[in-house]
Model the fold of this input.
Amino acid sequence: MKLLESNPSCSQVIGIHRHSNPAIDYHHPETVETCAKSLYSDGPFQLIINTIGVLHSEQWMPEKNWMI
Done:
């Protein structure tokens, strides 16, 4: 994010995460719609980078595991 912010070609960079305002949290799908509505007036956006991911949870583990 800092690299984009320091790029003179970028007029604005907005980072959203579970602690931002608006917040987005994959455990709560309704937050996706809330964020989209909140950021609508800041658009149109020329680049959106989605880095949401999960390494592991109670339901699944990483595909590569040292313990076999």
Q: What stands out?
A: The chain has a mean pLDDT of 84.
